Amino acid sequence: MSTDSVLERLAATEADQVRRLIDWLRIPSISTDPAYRDPTAQAAAWCADHLRASGFGVEVLPTGSPESPGHPIVLATSPGDEGYSGPHVLFYGHYDVQPADPLELWESPPFEPVIRPADGGADRPGERVVARGAVDDKGQVSTFLEAMRAWHDETGVPAGGVRMTVLIEGEEESGSVNLERFVREHKARLAECDVVVISDTGMLGRGRPAITNGIRGLTYTEVTLHGPDQDLHSGMWGGKVPNPINELVKVLADLWDPDRRVTLPGFYDRVREVGDDERAMWKTLGLDAAKALEGIGLPPEADVGEAGFTATEREWCRPTCDINGIVGGYTGEGAKTVIPTHATAKVSFRLVADQDPDSVRESFFTWLRERTPPGCRWELIDHGGGLAATTGADSPPMTAAMAALRRASGVEPKLIRSGGSIPVAGLLKGELGLDTVFIGFGLEDDRVHSPNEKFELECYRLGARTHAILIEELRGLG
Amino acid sequence: MSTDSVLERLAATEADQVRRLIDWLRIPSISTDPAYRDPTAQAAAWCADHLRASGFGVEVLPTGSPESPGHPIVLATSPGDEGYSGPHVLFYGHYDVQPADPLELWESPPFEPVIRPADGGADRPGERVVARGAVDDKGQVSTFLEAMRAWHDETGVPAGGVRMTVLIEGEEESGSVNLERFVREHKARLAECDVVVISDTGMLGRGRPAITNGIRGLTYTEVTLHGPDQDLHSGMWGGKVPNPINELVKVLADLWDPDRRVTLPGFYDRVREVGDDERAMWKTLGLDAAKALEGIGLPPEADVGEAGFTATEREWCRPTCDINGIVGGYTGEGAKTVIPTHATAKVSFRLVADQDPDSVRESFFTWLRERTPPGCRWELIDHGGGLAATTGADSPPMTAAMAALRRASGVEPKLIRSGGSIPVAGLLKGELGLDTVFIGFGLEDDRVHSPNEKFELECYRLGARTHAILIEELRGLG
User: Fold this and answer.
1) For domain B3-215+388-476, which CATH number applies: 3.90.1150.10, 3.30.70.60, 3.40.630.10, 2.40.50.200?
2) β-strand partners of A61
3) Which residues of A are less than 8 Å from B449 in CB distance?
4) CATH class (in words) of the domain with range A217-271+319-386
5) What is the model's pTM?
C-alpha cells in the first residue's frame, strides 16, 4: 500500500488544498434564494472539475422540472480495481450553503474567505478559514476531495482503487426537495452501493475525534394565516375582527405543553427509546451543558427543554419543535397601528427514529386546520425534510471508519450522535436500505448557519488524512 | 353675516382647493421613518404658508431636543374681532401620514395623487382623490384650511373674526411623542382656548353626517425577547435552549382569555361603562356588522371579539389588545433552520375612558417581566399613546357644531363614537381641561392606513362648508 506516501503528499501540498477550498467558498451557492441560482450552478461545476482531476467519471445532472428547475447533482464514479472486493462506498456531500444574513454581524464578508488564527487558544496554535460554508459543507467535502486527489496523483488510480460513487447535491440547505426523485430515478445505479459515508457532522471537541451513529430527522413547514383582504386601522377594527397575528400566536403557542413537550396528537408514538447503556455512555463523554450555554451567552438556567431529559439527550434522541421565523404586520421603525391581512411562521420539527416526517407534517397541518380562527384560512407549505437515521456500531464499514480515524488522529474515537438532520441518510436508508457512517470534523464553535462560520485547518487536516487512510481500511475489508 | 358669499366662493374655487390639496399630498411626510425627515418638514412649511395666506399669524416651532429632534408644530393664531365673545377655538390637525407599505398593493403610487371616480356607485356620482394621507389627515385638515381661506378672501379678516388657535402637528402617526412636552411648554397660551375642534374622524356613511363624542385611547409598545447571543443551528440546539420566537409566542398568547378579554391584572378596573340609553341609541343607527366584514373580505363568522358585546360596542366603548407587527428569525424565501437571537412584537392597547395609558403600559411590562423565559431578557420600548376622550352631547360648542353640520348637509347629524385614537384630545383634556368636538368627514371605505387611501370630494365639500358655517355659529354663541 502507498498510504504513507499519500499522507506525505497531503502534508506537502496543503497550501494548494486550502487555496482550492477558498476558491470554492468564494462562490455564493445559496440554494434557498432564487437570486443565487447561477453561482449555485457554478459551485457544482467547480466540484465536478475537482473530481475529474482525480480520475473520476463525472456527470453534472439537472434536477426538478422545466417549470420548477432544481440545482444540479454532481455524480461521480470510480470503478475500483479489478480485484477490489471491499464495500462499494457512496460518498455524499453538498455544495450549497445557508443564506449569510444577518450580514452586519460578519467580521469579514461571508463570501470573501479569510484565514485567521484558530479559536483554540494558545494551547492549540493554528489557523481557521472563515466564510459561509467553511465547515458546512464545502470544507468537510474538501477533506474527501483532496484525499481522493492525493491518491490519484500518487497512484494514477481514482480513489486508490476503491469502488466508489460520489453524490454532491446542491439543495441540502433548502430541504433537498429534488433529491428523493433523483434517488428514485437513479435507483438501479445507486443500489449497487453498500454503505454511505458522509462528512457533515462534528467531533466531540478539539482533539476528540468521533463518529456519529445517529442524526435527527426534520420536517420543515411554512404556515400563513390569512384574515381580512386589506390592512386595517387597528382603531376602527381592533376588537372587531380576528387579527391574523394575534390568532397565529395563540394557535402556535399551543404547540407545547408546560413540560415543553410537543402537543400534536400521537407525536411521540413512534419515538424509539434509547437504551440505558447508550444514555449511560453519553454521560461519560464529559459534555458540559452549562459551558455550552456560556458559549452562546446564556446562563445555566437556560438549560431547558422537554422535561425528564438531559441537554445531550434532548439534542441526540428527542424530537422537538421550533419556530425558525415569524413575520406579520408592521416591522419597520416606530409605530404603525395596523391589523394586517396575514401572518406567517416557519415551523420545523426535529425528529428521531422511527418518526415519519410526512406523517408529522400532515398531523401538524390537520391540527392547524382544526384550530382555524373564525373567518380565516390557512396557507400551508411543505419545505421538505427527512428521516432520522441511526447505524449499528459494529458493522464492518463502521469498524473501518473507526480504524481510519484512530490511525489519522492517534486517539481512540468516540461514538456520538448529532441533533442535526442529513435528510439524505434517511432517504438512502428508506429507498436503498443503506446505512450511513458519519465521519465529521466540525467543532461546536464553528458557528454553523451563523455569521463568521469557520473551519479550523487542524480539523481539515485530520479529515483529509482520515479519508486517505479509509481507502486502505476499505480495501482491507475485501 | 357674509356666510352665504363665503359658501359661494368655496363652490366657485373648488378646483383650486383640490389642486392645493394634491400639492400637499405629494409630500411624503412619513413621520415614523427617519428617512422622510426632510419631506415631513416640507409638509409643515406648506401648511404654514397656507395659513399665512388666510391672514393667520403663523409660527413653525421645533420639537424634541438637539439629540433627538422631533417634527415641527405649526401654531397659528387669529385674534378675533374686537367684539368677539364666542369661544376661543383650538383647531387641531396633523400633517404627517402613515408609511405607505405594502407598496405593491397600491394601484397608483401613494405620493402621486390621482383623481378617480368616487366609490359610491351610480347613485352617487363624483370623484375621489387617491393618495397616502388623502383623508388621514391632510384632506380633512384642508376642509378647515380652505374654509378659513374663503372667509379671509371674502372678508379680509382671518377666521371670519373668530378668536382661534390652530395647532397642526407632525407626529400623530408616530405616537405624538413630543406633543405632551410642547403643550406643557405652551400651556399659558393654549389655556386661553375654550374648546378643541378636530377633523380626523368619520361620518356614519355616505350622506350620513355625524359628530363624534368619544374616541379610544392608545398605548403602543415594542417588546423584544433576547436569548442566545448568536443565531443557532436548530439541529444542534433545538430542544436544548429557549428559542426566543417560541417563547415570545407563548408569552403573548396569554394576553387573551378564551372570551377574548385581555388578561392583564386590573385591565378593566377603570373602564367607564356606557349607559343603556347610549347603547340602545347605537342600535338604531343601522350599523351592519356582517356587511362591514364583507367589505374587508371576511364572512359573518369573523364577527368576534370580547364576549358579551356587539361589534359597535367593541369598537366604540371597549378596550382591546392587538399585535400590530411581529418579526424574528428567517423570513426570506424557503427554509432556514435557525434559532434566532431575538424576536420582536409591536403590541398596542386601545383604551377607553377612564383607563390610563401609562398604567396599562407599565402593567403590561410588569406582566412580561414576570414571565421572562429562563435565561432570556426583555427589551421594552414605549412608542407613546394617549388618553381616551368623551365629550358631553349638550355643551354649547357641540350644539354649534351640530347646527353647522345640519345646515351644511341639510340632514340631521348623528352622534357617534370612533374606535380610533387621537391622543391630543386626551392630552388637552388632561393638561388644559378642554373638551373636543370631532367633526369628521371620512367614510369607512376610505382605506385609512391601507393601500389606495382616498377621500371623496363630496365629503371634502361638506367639510369645507361645515367649517365655513361653524364660524357663524361660533359667533352666535357670544
Assistant:
1) 3.40.630.10
2) A73
3) 231-233, 336-338
4) alpha beta
5) 0.77
